Amino acid sequence: MSGRAYVGRFAPSPTGPLHAGSLVAALASWLDARAHGGRWLVRIEDVDTPRCVPGAAERILAQLQACALLPDETPVRQTSRGAAYQAALDGLLNAGLAYPCACSRQDIARAQAARGIVHRRHAALPYPGTCRDGLQGRTARAWRLRTDRAAAPLRWTDRAAGPQSQDVEQEVGDFVLRRADGLWAYQLAVVVDDAWQGVSDVVRGQDLLDNTARQILLQQALGVPTPRYLHTPLVLAPDGEKLSKQNGAEAFDESRPGEALSAAARLLGLPLPQSGRGPAELLAGWVEPWRAAWIAPSTIQG
């Protein structure tokens, strides 16, 4: 650990209640904070309002409480943070690190096809930088971060997955900070909020590993610290795909929190606790094994 005080966070999107996979991420984040003697925060990432389900945020907080995963501060909702995101975007625009973009998805596909790049199913097309030098009389739809100002490839080390690298300009392109529908993009919101809350360590599911390079580039552009990252194993559905709300994952049963926590701990490789104990006792019994097993890097096996 560096000299920074440890601050961790769990940041669910209220698109539905927590399921077995999201409980793994919550437990991992909570235990890592406790093992380091740090603080643990909960942030409701409701910036994508069309996808949010009424009552889901309240259900998520109730599920965490049932499992004795209690944050050290009152949870924050991203929908209250719009002014901070606007200030960050304004700073990037003034520094020449962001720009307005008029391109639709069809425009991007045509531009890449002209370069011989074929759109693969389920894969996002890298943005080719069409509007970097101006809108050419068109109307702005979104705002993007320039990815051609940083050294490539970007390299970092994940505490579980080890050394990582990504050429963001080639693999992703200039990515969106504010969307065409006026909503703030996840990448900007999460970076601004992590910096504001002093987050030192991000512990989250392995499905978010690919986001890390973009977030580090944005942290560098904004001049804010880069947290350490640790990505945990995923819970898989019977078809081998990631268990998620999109593929019908059911909420875990908060009336039986001990069973839900034990299943999550099993995936993380923690020793199984004795049966018949309440959530608070289970968690207390896991902090020391976590401290011993997880402080060293690259000890979590995906």
UniProtKB/TrEMBL annotation:
A motif ('HIGH' region) lies at residues 12-22. GO terms for molecular function: ATP binding; glutamate-tRNA ligase activity; zinc ion binding. A motif ('KMSKS' region) lies at residues 242-246. Its cofactor is Zn(2+). The keyword Hydrolase does not apply. GO terms for biological process: glutamyl-tRNA aminoacylation; tRNA modification. It comes from the Bacteria. Zn(2+) binds at residues 101, 103, 127, 131. Binds 1 zinc ion per subunit. Residues 9-251 form the Glutamyl/glutaminyl-tRNA synthetase class Ib catalytic domain. Keywords: Aminoacyl-tRNA synthetase, ATP-binding, Ligase, Metal-binding, Nucleotide-binding, Protein biosynthesis, Zinc. GO terms for cellular component: cytosol. InterPro entries: Glu-Q_tRNA(Asp)_Synthase, Glu/Gln-tRNA-synth, Glu/Gln-tRNA-synth_Ib_cat-dom, GluQ/Sye, Rossmann-like_a/b/a_fold. This is Glutamyl-Q tRNA(Asp) synthetase. It comes from Xylophilus rhododendri.
